[in-house]
Amino acid sequence: MPIGDVLNNGIEGFNRATQGIERASAEINRATIETQDENQQAQQRQLQGARPEESVTAPVSQPAKIDEALVNLKVEEFNAKANVQTIRTADEALGTLIDIKA
Question: Residue ranges of region Disordered (predicted)?
Fold first, then answer.
């Protein structure tokens, strides 16, 4: 496989990992804001004297969203690191070839 192809694959993989990191970060942010909003609503109802059974609690699925997004964030971090190593290796190989030919 030509070194240029390896380098391009590493760059494309790094770009995909960066996009995945952005998506996971946005999902974490969105889930955190939703949780904060729901907690504020529950506090407001309690302050207004609502009965306990009427108070709003965060849905059970909420932590799963954050957990899944955190896992995706970590996976994309590993993908980015692997692709950076691919780019470095291709760069070193290219540098070695240039040194040999020079």
Answer: 34-62
